[in-house]
Amino acid sequence: MINILKTRFSEESLQVASSVDNLLKLKFESSSFLIDHYKDLFGICNQSLMSEMSVLKNILGENSSLEEIKQHLILYDGKVFPNFCKMFQVAITLPVSTATCERSFSTMRRIKTWLRTCMNQDRFSNLSIMNIEKDIPINNEDILTIFEKTERRIQLH
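^ that's the sequence the OP posted. Answer follows.
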């Protein structure tokens, strides 16, 4: 299983995943890869974050769950642990899979195979987007209204 993960994801992706896991376990030293990557973006001080994580670990204990951490941050409205709150938000919003990208590439391959090279790039892009975003509800009345407002492109001789 580990070999499959190593071949599927880059070393950097595995480091990020490991760092996220360690951040959620309140282990400052082990989550340094993620912290170093985002600290400048969010203006996070390493010393303050380390102190906040230490206090949280003392309050919640060694084996705190994600739900317990979340409830504690909500309780204090993110004001008591502002640096950890920012890192927590980053950690829980990072994408954990490549399924979306793979689905997009799979769709593009199906469309390109089906239509071969008989289309231009604009049409290919539009068809790909339509297929990938097919879960978005479409209002037929709006489409007809837009179609009615456009001029007729066919030329009669």
